[in-house]
Design brief:
The structure holds three protein chains of three kinds. Chain A is mainly α. Chain A contains 16 helices and no strands. Chain C has a seven-stranded mixed sheet with strand order 5-4-16-15-14-6-7. In chain C, strands 21-23-22-25-19-24 form a six-stranded mixed sheet. In chain C, strands 11-10-9-12 form a four-stranded parallel sheet. In chain C, helix 9 packs across helix 10. The chains are: A mainly alpha, B alpha+beta, C alpha/beta.
Chain lengths: 469, 178, 967
């Protein structure tokens, strides 16, 4: 019974003006128009111009990436700007950046689910879409940056005639396992969570093909109480598993740097520092997507100002933590007494790549501070702009981490600067194309808002809150 | 031609409250094989219509298995199959092996959750007799259904129909099993 | 080689093919069949072997594929010999090592000798006779030549001119003498653009005759270099560096060190190494030398008003204290008066005969080559020259600009050029004849002290080519003789004068011949010393150099490209210059103050104007140069060198006049707008106060022998939670004595030749992708206005706890049981994580397919014991693991422990100063183990606890206290 109490409490829809906040779902939404509204997006026969424009632009960028990859495989990684000492640069920066964005999505879908933040119900599917698209991009770069990508599978343990196996002390192998697990878990979670809504799609589909496709995907879901019980249980379990996974996957990414003894990388602060940055970047990306779509597909009644407000608050919190870490960095390096660490800190702020450092400080750290003003939190246009600045700033940070630490480490005789090539840029912007292509494809074909979860936010769904007999 | 074997008697209700009330009534009047269908989870139903599953133990077991497999794979390879002097570290560098061990725990558990969930939900099951109810599509939107299944020992079509009618449903159907 | 006139028969005489280096004919056949270029020339056909080759180590029979053979010969570098032992695999010379018996080598090699093997395989070598830019043949040339000779013979050679580079080879000299005797009207001219012109004039001024000077630095306690880069450049630099380091080896309590003073106009490797260094303008050197002489006369008191008093006083006292044990070395490009003054100083200090040796000239005929060339050009213009025979050299490119050799050459009715490349000169001559490389043919050459080496061919000529003596023989007799016959005939007559006992009979001569060829030198053939009278110092007009103003432009031969003849050698083009670390370019060097005064920045293109001629080149700011002094190196800006050399750098010969070969005052400089990117492999030359290269005065070591362990404490062995790995068998390690390293870069080239290291080209060097496994770091120290330099060769450290190994995901780099950090190319997937995690940044990555897999000639040079790496894999120094394994196999066959010094890494073997020692650290008797016990021994970046197997002995210097307190 206490369970019920809590459920009612948290699941109770907040009415407009309460706590000076907008409701999670605007008044006037019923089961019927809700289902109709969401399922209509994939099912509508005529494709909105906005979608065509975005998807078209994204595919063009994707083609650019395909061409860049062809050149890369033909000539070799030498077409990128990397050198000795800066052996990692754009590809790894992009990889970390995309993983961050994916992780931010998972945070909404799993962690907030675990802590029963019901307000996330309307945007967690969207967040998972961001996660999947982000993983698709992130998974690409570690492969592309390999000198001999055609034998990437040598990093996996499998019985082979060479009788050689991976070297499990290497963070890169940890990464392989981490990313694979994370990708698989995210996909399973996303699909399992979507089955009831696929059933809604099945039941709304009029044409035969969608009916068949959604019918098969729905696996014959009937909404039986048994189904719901297990579905809820599995959801909690998966959320419980994903929550530590989300933290570890980016911790492992941070190990790629923290395990190395490169000054500026070799630091115990890296795991929390990376995870926090990931949440900031990921939430920003989710915010951008949410704002864009709610505007274009008229979902203001489902993705309300309340959501934007909460997302903005998460961004603000994480950015403040990040500020703390960056304020503390000079102290730790000074306190360590390590001359190389100290020089690296100085080099970041005043070296040849100082501009990336300050670009990050301005965009990644300064940008979110605008969110102290509630006006900026609730105004979609401003929030979109700020989120955009943050996403750009976080990329600058990853880039800065690469070039400043590697470019000037222990032996001055080996110091060198780095210059990105057209190839590098083509891959970066191409990957953005890949991200948008996947995301917009998902949006057009699947219910990108969790209908059954939103239903639970409606007054109708509450015992006693129902219609009069 | 023989009478087709019935699957059960189904009543459609206006909303969650009446469905819940109906379910309680059905249980009270001794029906055991009762199942309720709704567009979203109604937690109160869980007490009314009890059911069991092994989700948690299965997930736990496979998680443990994943952990053991994960660590032993690394130990086996690094210390037995292909031992090398890497940075002068011991062959069994267990601290370095913990990460992958954890990832394997999660990997196995996640797969277990997914497949166990489908197993106990009885999915996939693309066809079901209830789908023949014309309004059953509403179950994924705003429809609430209660079904007294023919498997129930006390099931007798006419009586079940009468009973359901007494619960003030929108409509009552008799559903054949094929 | 067979006679020229009898064509070539495809037959191989029975019983003689085994006297070839292996199946050279068969192999070469297939190689050249593959080489389309060779097919055009028709050189694919085999020719009968007719020569004996003297094996040095193994007898020629019992040829085992995979077992290399070693032949003694000499690398002829700028006309002078450095005795070498060539490693040949199945008839292909692949690697050049020093000949321990040879005075110019003592087992080590110079950069140019190491790189000479690549010249042999240069794909751009001329492969065919060219007549008026059309491919022709030797037969066509010979018949045409005989017709040309008829009138010449009739007039006793009137109108016939020979133009050669400085001729030092005795047999060639004799051949020329015969020609001149047969054709008395003919004339012979010599011209070397960067030859010792000043040295000749200087000795003429000092002694009234031509003398050859060389130095015995192993006897010198105090050395003064007047603008001489004797440690890194010049025909004897290998020997000089060896002797120099010999007197600086501080071990245990023996702290005796020689002292080197360097006065320079441009910072060189020698200057950076000096205990005291001063920058002086080129024009001030005579005054400086004169003041020094005056001070020596006055017992160490600098002459009144000398602006060098601060230096001259202590210096003179130091020299005075070491009479007979000091040496004053003038730079070859310094003015004759400086040379004469140095002779005077050396003789008055009693150094002549002890540290400074004088012999009769090495060259067959010493002369004022500029005057000789000027005479030739005027004759060519006046039409007095009817037939010009150019044997070697490239005067069209490198003759003084004011002589306009090219214009004169166009007026010569018939001109013939013999050379390795169809170069700028060949374009203007009627005939071009391909010359044999000195590894392809018989010949003889003298070393810096006159020691003669008989050159034996290591491989049959790759193309239809002939040597100068064979061409000269066409003038004398028909049918002419092969170079081997000429050579043997000459030494049959001169064996006695060559040093050996006069052979009574053929048998005796034969054994003398075999021994001389086999040893790689003719015993006792060094020129006898002469003791000249006290040299008279030329009067130096006392000029206060402060009033002399205007920019001075100094020309120097490039340390690697020399006068341009090595421009097409890719190894040398990509080898970083000792101090500037530039590759693929020459530059306009000036010191920071001058650049600031002229408002110039690095890589800014400037125009140098002088005497109506001008040249454009990029600025490179070189700390340590003299004020208002611009230094440019010769040899760049070639247009017909080949694909490697063409277009690299800028040609300064076009502003070099015959009356000012080395320095011109009052050049005008103007910015030419654009800027030109220069590819330097090391851009940061400050050590940022990090104790990487440790260099201290020897006095500190004497007072506190343990100072190194205080600067650079070694982490304790138990500073780790992990149990230790133990190395019970061999445990390979390297010790590098920084006091000995003189930054000659021979090790870098040796490593490149041994390990098939590819050349990447300027664009890739610009993006910091140079592939050298071994690099020599250079750091400036001391006063920025007059810095000193620290050198440190950086190979892979083979850390016992290698950070690279931990992070490799595929076990592509792991530790071997004998302490090596192995790199497994086949396993590498190219994550490059290992490079990130290498604190020494010694790992190199194949960003693209750098190795040349297609050029047939270059394939022949590859070391078959070393993998040719493909695209996308990491590589690095392996401690020459192929040599280790070879030695292991031998020792296992003989069931014994590998002897100390049995394994020499390529860098160690090439090093003239023996700065690099390699061996098993487990045997405490081994040299490397003993060096690592020295108190000077330290590990670079020891605090990272990587436990490097390559450790360093801190550098010690020996400054003069008197001079220290003054400055």
């Amino acid at each position: 019974m206490r369970v019920d109490e809590r459920q009612r409490e948290t699941a109770r829809p907040l009415r407009a003006g309460e706590e000076g906040q907008a409701a999670v779902v605007a008044p006037g939404v019923t089961f019927k128009n809700l289902t109709g509204q969401i399922t209509a997006i994939p099912l509508q026969p005529h494709v909105p111009a906005f979608w065509i424009a975005c998807f078209g632009a994204a595919t063009v960028a994707l083609c650019v990436m395909a061409a860049a990859i062809a050149i890369l495989l033909d000539v070799g990684v030498g077409t990128m700007g990397n050198n000795i000492p800066v052996a990692w640069a754009f590809p790894i920066a992009n990889y970390v950046w995309w993983i961050e964005i994916a992780v931010g999505g998972s945070l909404l879908s799993s962690i907030l689910h675990l802590f029963n933040q019901s307000w996330r119900n309307s945007i967690n599917r969207l967040a998972e879409g961001v996660t999947l698209s982000g993983i698709a991009c992130a998974g690409l770069f570690p492969l592309l940056h390999l000198g001999r990508v055609w034998i990437f599978y040598w990093t996996l343990p499998y019985p082979n005639t060479l009788t050689i196996q991976p070297q499990f002390r290497s963070p890169l192998v940890w990464d392989v396992f981490g990313i694979f697990t994370y990708a698989l878990a995210s996909i399973l979670f996303w699909y399992l969570d979507m089955i009831p809504d696929l059933a809604s799609m099945r039941d709304r589909a009029t044409a035969r093909l969608p009916y068949l496709v959604y019918g098969i995907l729905a696996l014959g879901w009937r909404g039986a109480s048994r189904h719901w019980r297990i579905h809820e249980k599995a959801g909690i379990l998966l959320a419980g598993l994903l929550t530590p996974l989300v933290f570890t996957v980016h911790t492992v990414v941070s190990f790629d740097f923290a395990i190395a003894l490169v000054p500026g990388w070799h630091s115990t602060i890296f795991p929390p520092y990376f995870v926090d940055g990931a949440i900031l970047a990921g939430i920003s990306m989710v915010t951008m997507m949410a704002i864009a779509l709610r505007a274009k597909f008229d979902l203001k009644n489902i993705i309300t100002e309340r959501h934007l407000n909460n997302l903005a608050k998460v961004m603000l919190t994480t950015s403040v933590i990040l500020c703390y870490i960056y304020v503390f960095e000079p102290f730790t390096s000074w306190y360590s007494g390590d001359p190389y660490e100290m020089y690296t800190v100085h080099n970041r702020a005043a070296g040849p790549f100082a501009w990336t450092y300050w670009a990050f400080v301005l965009l990644g750290l300064g940008g979110p501070q605008l969110l102290w003003w509630s006006r900026n939190r609730t105004n979609p246009k401003r929030l979109f702009l700020i989120a955009f600045l943050v996403v750009v700033g976080m990329w600058e940070e990853r880039y800065m981490l690469m070039v400043t630490s590697l470019g000037r480490d222990f032996m001055p005789s080996a110091w060198a600067n780095y210059a990105a090539t057209a190839e590098d840029n083509a891959l970066l912007y191409g990957s953005i194309g890949l991200f948008l292509t996947v995301f917009f494809f998902l949006w057009r074909t699947l219910p990108m808002i969790s209908i059954y979860e939103v239903r639970q936010l409606l007054p109708l769904s509450k015992p006693g809150g129902g219609t009069v007999k | 031609m023989t009478q087709p074997k019935p699957y059960g008697m189904v009543a459609e209700f206006e909303d969650a409250d009446s469905l819940l009330a109906a379910a309680r009534a059905a249980r009270a009047s001794g029906y055991r094989r009762v199942e309720a269908y709704s567009p979203y989870p109604i937690r109160e139903l869980d007490e009314v219509i009890p059911s069991w599953d092994l989700l948690s133990p299965m997930v736990f077991a496979s998680g443990v298995a994943g952990g053991f497999i994960g660590f032993y794979m690394q130990y086996f390879i690094a210390a037995i199959v292909y031992p090398t002097n890497t940075r002068g570290m011991p062959l069994n560098s267990w601290p370095a092996f913990t990460v992958i061990t954890f990832e394997m725990v999660v990997l196995f558990s996640v797969c277990a959750v997914f497949f166990a969930a489908l197993l106990f939900e009885g999915l996939p099951q693309l066809y079901h007799p209830l789908f023949r109810i014309p309004t059953f599509k509403r179950v994924s939107d705003d429809g609430f259904f209660l079904c007294i299944e023919a498997r129930d020992g006390r099931f007798e079509p006419a009586q079940a129909a009468r009973f359901l009618q007494s619960l003030d449903p929108l409509k009552v159907w008799e559903v054949d099993s094929e | 080689m067979p006679p020229l006139i009898t064509g070539s028969s495809p037959l191989v005489r029975i019983g003689e093919e085994d006297q070839l280096p292996d199946q050279a004919t068969r192999r070469r056949f297939f190689e050249l069949m593959g080489a389309s270029t060779a097919l055009i020339t028709g050189a694919g056909c085999t020719r009968p072997p007719t020569e004996f080759l003297m094996p040095y180590v193994q007898p020629p029979e019992k040829t085992l594929p995979g077992v290399p053979k070693y032949y003694a010969t000499a690398a002829v570098v700028n006309g002078l010999a450095q005795g070498v032992i060539a490693e040949t695999h199945l008839g292909r010379p692949t690697k050049i090592e020093g000949n321990p018996r040879h005075p110019a080598s003592l087992g080590a090699t110079g950069v140019l000798s190491q790189a000479s093997v690549l010249d042999l395989y240069d794909p751009d070598r001329s492969k065919v006779v060219i007549y008026r830019e059309q491919a022709s043949s030797w037969d066509a040339f010979i018949s045409a030549f005989q017709q040309l000779l008829a009138p010449v013979r009739a007039t006793h050679g009137r109108g016939l001119r020979l133009l050669t580079e400085t001729v030092i080879s005795p047999s060639t000299g004799a051949q020329i003498a015969d020609v001149l005797a047969a054709l008395p009207e003919a004339r012979w001219h010599q011209y070397d653009p960067a030859g010792p012109h000043s040295a000749r004039a200087g000795s003429l001024a000092a002694f009234g005759r031509y003398l050859n000077t060389y130095y015995r630095l192993d006897r010198a306690r105090v050395i003064l270099s007047l603008d001489s880069d004797f440690l890194a450049c010049g025909p004897a630099s290998t020997r000089y560096a060896h002797d120099f380091a010999l007197r600086r080896r501080v071990r245990g309590s023996n702290t005796a060190m020689n002292r080197l003073y360097a006065v320079e106009s441009h910072m060189t490797a020698t200057g950076g190494k000096a205990d005291h260094r001063a920058a002086l303008r080129y024009s001030e050197f005579p005054q400086f030398a004169a003041d020094l002489a005056a001070a020596l006369g006055a017992g160490g008191a600098a002459p009144a008003g000398s602006k060098y008093a601060a230096w001259v006083g202590p210096l003179a006292r130091d020299l005075d204290a070491h009479r007979g044990a000091s040496a004053i070395i003038p730079g070859e490009h310094q003015s004759p008066s400086v040379h004469a003054l140095c002779h005077a100083l050396n003789t008055s200090l009693g150094n002549a005969g002890s540290t400074v040796a004088y012999t009769e000239p090495l060259e067959v005929r010493s002369e004022d080559q500029i005057a000789s060339l000027r005479e030739l050009v005027s004759d060519m213009e006046s039409g007095a020259v009817s037939l010009l025979l150019i044997l070697g050299g490239n005067p069209v490119y490198n003759a003084p600009a004011d002589l306009d050799f090219a214009g004169a050459l166009r007026r010569v009715p018939m001109s013939i050029k013999l050379g390795l490349h169809a170069d700028e000169t060949s374009r203007l001559t009627h005939w071009h004849l391909p010359e044999t490389h000195f590894y392809e043919d018989w010949g003889d050459a003298r070393a810096y002290d006159g020691t003669v080496t008989i050159l034996q061919p290591l491989i049959l000529p790759l193309y239809e080519s002939h040597s100068p003596v064979e061409v000269l023989d066409l003038l004398l007799r028909a049918p002419n003789r092969t170079s081997r016959e000429i050579l043997r005939a000459y030494w049959r007559g001169h064996a006695a004068s060559g040093g050996g006992a006069a052979p009574e009979n053929d048998g005796e001569f034969e054994s003398w011949w075999r021994k001389s060829v086999g040893d790689g030198l003719i015993a006792g053939s060094a020129l006898p010393e002469v003791t000249p009278a006290q040299a008279k110092a030329p009067e130096v007009p006392h000029t206060d150099s402060t009033v002399r103003s205007g920019l001075e432009l100094v020309f120097r031969p490039d340390p690697y490209i020399y006068d341009g003849r090595y421009a097409n050698n890719a190894w040398l083009q990509e080898l970083p210059k000792p101090i500037s670390k530039l590759t693929w370019d020459n530059a306009v060097h000036m010191n920071p103050r001058t650049a600031a005064r002229l408002h110039l920045e690095n890589q800014q293109v400037v125009e140098l104007k002088y005497g109506g001629r001008s040249v454009r080149g990029p600025v490179w700011i070189s700390p340590g140069d003299a004020d208002d002094t611009i230094t440019v190196s010769l040899g760049y800006g070639r247009t017909d060198a080949g694909v490697i050399g063409n277009g690299a750098g800028f040609d300064v010969y076009c502003v070099r006049a015959s009356d000012a070969l080395w320095c011109v005052a009052g050049v005008e400089i103007a910015t030419a707008g654009a800027s030109h990117r220069l590819a330097a492999t090391q851009t940061e030359k400050s050590m940022h106060d990090r104790p990487l290269v440790i260099s201290k005065p020897v006095a500190l070591y004497e007072s506190d022998p343990d100072f190194v362990s205080r600067i650079r404490p070694e982490p304790l062995l138990d500073e780790t939670l992990y149990p230790q790995w133990t190395y019970t068998g061999y445990n390979w390690g390297m010790a590098i004595d920084l006091t000995a390293c003189v930054n000659c870069n021979a090790c870098v080239i040796a490593c490149q030749a041994e390990n098939n290291i590819p050349v990447v080209g300027k664009a890739e060097v610009l993006s910091h992708r140079d592939m050298h496994w071994l690099r020599v770091d250079v750091y400036y120290t001391g006063n920025p206005d007059n810095p000193s330099a620290l050198y440190a060769p950086i190979p892979c450290m083979h850390c016992e706890q290698a950070p690279c190994e931990e992070v490799c995901p595929v076990q592509a780099t792991v530790h071997s049981s004998d302490g090596l950090n192995d790199m497994i190319y086949n396993r590498c997937v190219g994550t490059r994580y290992c490079s990130n995690n290498c604190p020494y940044k010694v790992r190199r990555f194949n960003w693209k397919l750098y190795a040349d897999w297609y050029t047939e000639q270059l394939k022949m040079q590859k070391n078959p014991d070393v993998t040719v790496r493909s695209r996308g894999v990491m590589e690095k120094c392996t401690y020459c693991v192929q040599r280790i394994r070879e030695a292991e196999i031998h020792s296992q066959d003989e069931d014994r422990y590998i002897r100390d010094g049995e394994i020499q890494t390529a860098c160690q073997q090439a090093c003239p100063t023996q700065a690099i020692r390699f061996g098993d650290m487990n045997n405490s008797a081994n040299q490397v183990a003993r060096l690592k016990r020295e108190k000077l021994n330290y590990s670079m970046l020891a605090e990272l606890n990587t436990r490097p197997h390559t450790t360093y002995l801190a550098e010690l210097r020996n400054p003069n206290p008197a001079l220290l307190e003054h400055s």
